[in-house]
Amino acid sequence: MLPPAARLAARRLLGLATSSASESAAARRLSRSPVSAPLPLLQMPLYLLAVRRRSFAVLISPSGGNVSLQISYAAAGCFSRLFSTALNYHLDSPENNPDMPWEFTEANMKKVNEILSHYPSNYKQSGIIPMLDLAQQQHGGWVPVAAMNAIAKIVEVAPIRVYEVATFYTMFNRTKVGKYHLLVCGTTPCMIRGSREIEEALLEHLGVKRNEVTSDGLFSVGEMECMGCCVNAPMIAVADYSKGSEGYTYNYYEDLTPKRVVEIVEMLKRGETPPRGTQHPERKNCGPAGGNTTLHADMRRQW
Amino acid sequence: MAFFARAIRHSSPYLRSRAPPPPAVAASCRWISPTAAAGSPEAGAAVAPADPETPPPREPVGGARVELPSNPEDALEVFVDGHAVRIPKGFTVLQACEVAGVDIPRFCYHSRLSIAGNCRMCLVEVEKSPKPVASCAMPALPGMKIKTNTPVAKKAREGVMEFLLMNHPLDCPICDQGGECDLQDQSMAFGADRGRFTEMKRSVVDKNLGPLVKTVMTRCIQCTRCVRFASEVAGVQDLGMLGRGSGEEIGTYVEKLMTSELSGNVIDICPVGALTSKPFAFKARNWELKGTETIDVTDAVGSNIRVDSRGPEVMRIVPRLNEDINEEWISDKTRFCYDGLKRQRLNDPMIRGTDGRFKAVTWRDALAVVAEVLQQVKPEEITGVAGKLSDAESMMALKDFVNKMGSDKVLCEGNGPSPPADLRSNYLMNTSIAGLEKADVFLLVGTQPRVEAAMVNARIRKTVRATQAKVAYIGPPTDFNYDHEHLGTGPQTLVEIAEGRHPFCSTLQSAKNPVIIAGAGLFDREDQDALFSTIETVAKKFNVVRPDWNGLNVLLLHAAQAAALDLGLVANPTESIKSTKFLYLMGADDVDLDKVPDDAFVVYQGHHGDKAVYRANVILPSSAFSEKEGTYENTEGCTQWTIPAVPTVGDARDDWKILRALSEVAGAQLPYDSLSGVRDRISMVAPNLVHVDEREPCTISSEVKPPVKQQVSSTPFKTVVENFYMTDAITRASKIMAQCSATLLKK
């Protein structure tokens, strides 16, 4: 049986309990003692939980009864939203497990040797990041644990050293993504210019949630932080893994509207290549719409 | 004031967020300050440059000795809180502060691990430095003026502490680290008594590291001590730091148990309750425990331990610092064998009846039965065998008793048919365990130190890591946690080296301080004389034994072995057991009981109902190492005492006392009645065994040995320790060790 405090916490997370005045008064009273254990959860005002409700998914663990585990899952859900596409630990699945055979293709092996040639032979581990990138391109946009093990073997380090790198960098996907991985910029300038609408339009059009892959395996939508295109906000980046590491592209589509982003998705679906960069018909690169309004002269001549 | 602060806290959110409380209130909210004066900024500033004329004497933290280099140019002077201290070059600011007697708070810094500098708790103020400095990672420079208790340093630490506590659960009441937690202790000095953090706390999924280490990863403060310990000391690259930012967590990424024989040490180095002892979970609080400083007997290293007990029960075992033996680590077998002390214990004298079942009897009856049988057998048919956990006192009493009965067949198990007991240098680790650090080439002959003596292995690994010393190994394929060269599996390779035909000879030739370690498993071989003579040839050829360096070592297996050889328990086991009519087993469970004649009368005196009990006719219960005062000599020849931590079980008695009582009943009374009496007797036979905590090196060289005519056989060396976790009666009775054997050993 669960301890009462933990049960209450779990019920709160599940939205089952209401905060009565007496409860919060009791919580406040207890909170004066500096060593009252599980109280932060109880103390947390309900409105906070409400604000964060979207990010919480309270899972009941298969073994049941372990509230701390459930809460961990809840928080892990919260962080998987904030960070990369996966949890910080690996769970075996048929398509991602350490026993799976995985190696670089012959063409990529040449690239691996090229990467290794950049570093002294006793610092092979410097090549982990470019190799992970190469493995990700080769493996359709994500790095399975077997690929990390293969890289560890090449650079002669323990596998955990590669796992550390792969989990640290959010651009390494450790779960399956679509052939076209659409990354919506969520940083402030893009958000002010409507990146949330862009994302909503994408998710609605594709019928998926964030970090989910469409049933045809073509698209997935993720979030990235500032990609440096604030002047053309809002923008998305499209990582195209459909043609393997040879035809891999990583394009920005800027000045988007919910309508235009759906058009881009449709073009990609048809196998067309939408023009990259700004989608504003009157803009050229990051210049103002309709051509320059100032600085008409050639500045070089004046200097 | 406190009421005022609380009032502010519960007032409107506007006031709470926009108006910081006046500084005086903030200061008065602190519970405990590191120094009484440091509570307010003005007082703290006044303390620092007190009076430079007469600085009060400062002792290094913990009374540590600081050895300044002989060359004065290699030392430098810094000022800690206005006191000048001299330190060797290369010390960090934190170490300089420790020399000056200032204990800097820290979480990630550990003197035996590499410097990470990521907890930021050790921030101090350094004059002319624009920001507080992480003292653990900053090298001390000449003339540096370090200030450790200024408002800047204090505020910096308080800020760090607030961030650490931000995501740390407030579950101290249900945390096993409570009471011995670095975070708890330091938050008393630097923590606020209330938090400003109203967000949700982070939580982390717990990891399964095996049957020994319990994880509550939400409590982790990411100091990475465990990661560094695993990869640097234990040599298993399993743990890592995964993720980033506040999602960062310690883990193995893939499901993996921590398969190291030193994994339990992460429990000690974890500054919080993230890694705690699984068997000890929720069993006791540290302030309820009585600590007894004693030594470990599960292997021949004699690791220094503290047995923590509550009432009659051993609750846990933790290491004790001994730079010469185990530094501050112990093996998992040492740490977790304690539950074996509660199981399978023999608590009453027992006699096997005609129906084959044991019946509990009184001591008087049991001793009378044994004495009666003793009268009926011929003196030369009496054999005494000491077990691998026996202390020197009991072995002395056993030898005296058997000799008094007219037999000279006394032996200690594990020492082989003709133990090399003539010269101490033939069975000791002559280099000493700490001395191994000076070696640059190791040649391991028939020994797997990782399972035979985990702490010796840790020393070799430390040396290999620090100086890139080369390790070569002759023996069956086995696991090493450092780079090594596997030269061969049998004595032939050794002969090749002795004759200079092996490619490894050039490495040995160029070595400055070569070390040869022979395993005690070789004692059991028929050709052991020839083997050791070959090893001596190698030693001679490559200058392993010099006046200033003795690199010829034997690594023993059991705690009793060295003392038994010192005391002369050297009978041949195969012959004496085959022909015996009266076998006295003093805790000896690993003798070949099939060879014991059917009509032999077997007395088993010991603390555990282990293997030999099945053959015993009479059982005499004795006390285990945690319950008696006993002298043990470790593999390097260092004599140490065990100290009783808990009372004995039932009617059990100390081994030597049982023998003394039996000798009286049998009519051959031993001439000592007290422990000091036994020790006086020991000092006549082996005076080194009464010089406690001293390592007495052997002074006679092996040159005086007679020449050996035996030939080495071609039989390859065997693995001596099959199961690291179960080697003796105590560990075989332990449930935790059984779990470890089941889950951690590679199949």
TrEMBL record, chain A:
One of its GO terms (biological process) is mitochondrial electron transport, NADH to ubiquinone. Keywords: 2Fe-2S, Iron, Iron-sulfur, Metal-binding. CDD domains: TRX_Fd_NuoE (cd03064). Its cofactor is [2Fe-2S] cluster. Residues 272-303 are annotated as: Disordered. Coiled coil: none annotated. GO terms for cellular component: mitochondrion; respiratory chain complex I. Belongs to the complex I 24 kDa subunit family. This is NADH dehydrogenase [ubiquinone] flavoprotein 2, mitochondrial. The lineage of its organism: Eukaryota, Viridiplantae, Streptophyta, Embryophyta, Tracheophyta.
UniProtKB/TrEMBL annotation, chain B:
It comes from the Eukaryota. Transmembrane segments: none annotated. Residues 152-191 form the 4Fe-4S His(Cys)3-ligated-type domain. Its cofactor is [4Fe-4S] cluster; [2Fe-2S] cluster. PROSITE patterns: 2FE2S_FER_2, 4FE4S_HC3, 4FE4S_MOW_BIS_MGD, COMPLEX1_75K_1, COMPLEX1_75K_2, COMPLEX1_75K_3, PROKAR_LIPOPROTEIN. GO terms for molecular function: 4 iron, 4 sulfur cluster binding; metal ion binding; NADH dehydrogenase (ubiquinone) activity; oxidoreductase activity, acting on NAD(P)H. InterPro entries: 2Fe-2S_ferredoxin-like_sf (IPR036010), 2Fe-2S_ferredoxin-type (IPR001041), Mopterin_OxRdtase (IPR006656), Mopterin_OxRdtase_4Fe-4S_dom (IPR006963), NADH_UbQ_OxRdtase_75kDa_su_CS (IPR000283), NADH_UbQ_OxRdtase_ferredoxin (IPR054351), NADH_UbQ_OxRdtase_Gsu (IPR010228), NADH_UbQ_OxRdtase_Gsu_4Fe4S-bd (IPR019574). Residues 74-152 form the 2Fe-2S ferredoxin-type domain. The keyword Nucleotidyltransferase does not apply. Residues 289-345 form the 4Fe-4S Mo/W bis-MGD-type domain. Residues 42-51 have a biased composition (Low complexity). Residues 42-65 are annotated as: Disordered. Keywords: 4Fe-4S, Iron, Iron-sulfur, Metal-binding, NAD, Translocase. GO terms for biological process: ATP synthesis coupled electron transport. One of its GO terms (cellular component) is membrane. SMART domains: NADH-G_4Fe-4S_3 (SM00929). Belongs to the complex I 75 kDa subunit family. This is NADH dehydrogenase [ubiquinone] iron-sulfur protein 1, mitochondrial.
